[in-house]
Amino acid sequence: MNHLILIRHGQSIWNFEKRFTGWADIDLTDKGKSEAHKAGKLIKKINLRINNYFCSYQKRSINTLKIILDVIGSDKNQIIKAWELNERHYGSLTGLNKDEMKKKLGEDKIHIFRRSWDKPPEPLGKNSPYHPLNIEIYKDIPKEKIPDTESLKDTYERVIPYFKKEIEKKISENIIVSAHGNSIRSLCKYLFDINNEDISKLEIPTGNPLVLKFDENTKLLEAKYLDEER
Question: Is 89 tagged catalytic?
């Protein structure tokens, strides 16, 4: 049996503060670190030999994976970081409080920006300190690849080609992917064949490993969250 474990990073500081995060590089809260530690214990309990570890360029994803690997006793030097697994870019909403923006723009408008398939927020100005062009960790990404804003469709169109090229072929060796709400939603859309309308209903919890089992032909057989209470 072949396995792919998808995990959204533990709670971040901006998750706690209810701010749109996107490509801003925000770290975990203490609760987020605890979620990652619990995830590691749950993964260790299923006793899989896992040979491949992927995450985004963002510290909340990286540090979640490092905590998990510490718990299961795996080599953190083998982590592969891919900007293609980054969270969706929230454009001009980056850094703003979600509740305040609901009051300002209305719940329907914010729901469209958060959950619609192909409607991105307004672009983030290139002079913003939150723009990826001004964040050191993204300096090696070709400038033409760096977005000013993204819809889920845009996110899907960078996540899935990377998954097909670099990850899918390694499922036979068992994989952990530590990523973000929208990059994992993109993967779930592809793997579960979810249509453009229904994907808006999919919520991804922080710090709860989703284990997918495949046969030798990479046909999906089963999927379940390890923390069943959540």
Answer: no
Count of positions (residues) in the chain: 230
Q: How far apart are the first and last CA of the chain?
A: 25
Question: Could you read off the pLDDT of 9-67 as tens digits, one per residue?
Answer: 999 999 999 999 999 999 999 999 999 999 999 999 999 999 999 999 999 999 999 99
Whether 87 is catalytic is yes
9, 89, 131, 180: which is the annotated catalytic residue? 9
- Quick one: the chain helix, strand, coil %, rounded to 5? 45, 15, 40
Q: Which of 35, 84, 87, 150 is catalytic?
A: 87
pTM for this prediction: 0.94
**CB-based contacts of 183, cutoff 8 Å, min separation 6:** 56, 85, 86, 87, 88, 155, 159
